[in-house]
Amino acid sequence: MVAVGKRVAPLPPRRSRLALLTHRAPPSGRTSDGERFGGAHRLARESTVQLWKPFIAPSIKALEDKNRATERSLGIIKPDPDSLKFKYRPTTQGNKNDQEIAEAVHQVSMLEDPLKPLERAKYSFVYQYTCDGHPHRHQIHDWEVQTTFINYRKRYGSEEEALKMMTQEYQDYIPKRNLHFILGTMARHLRTFIVIGLLRSQYDPRELDKQGGLF
What we know:
Blueprint lengths: L16 H5 L24 H7 L7 H11 L3 E4 L7 E6 L5 H17 L10 E9 L2 E6 L3 H14 L2 H15 L6 E7 L2 E11 L5 H7 L4
Antiparallel strand pairs: 1-5, 2-3, 3-4, 5-6
Helix pairs in contact: 5-6
């Protein structure tokens, strides 16, 4: 279980504490109790956004500065509007660190559900974006994106169609839902943040501040 202020070692489980707060499910997937989402993401409720709002950092640089000063290893950032570009590539074309992390994700899936682990990832999914005006490129190291690919391949009948629909979902739809990234470090790379989860909601945390929130 990921804990704020503690190091992630060796990798966050498929559903981190912050991820659970979003009530997420892959597109066209099911929750643990079998509820079907019919192709749409369930968006976080206002009260849920209030819970993860305190962990939002103004930028990746600010999060990195906090990491060096206090060993903070988990945080949330919001990409700049209209800066997101969703990309994919074969996993064999990723860098060594990304390949190691992808393998760790697969190992975690085997430990969590030995009878039905995630299949080994064939594609890596990446977001290019800016945050506070600075460019970044992060592979999405989260069970959700790989599960989405598997679900879409089954639903649409081919990898080509699955990748096409994923691009539509992650490029066109998700960024319009107040997308935030959960970033965490790993035991082997204590100063490097990676994307370990996606948060989205119909509520903009900044607007909740203006309204005074719920509490």
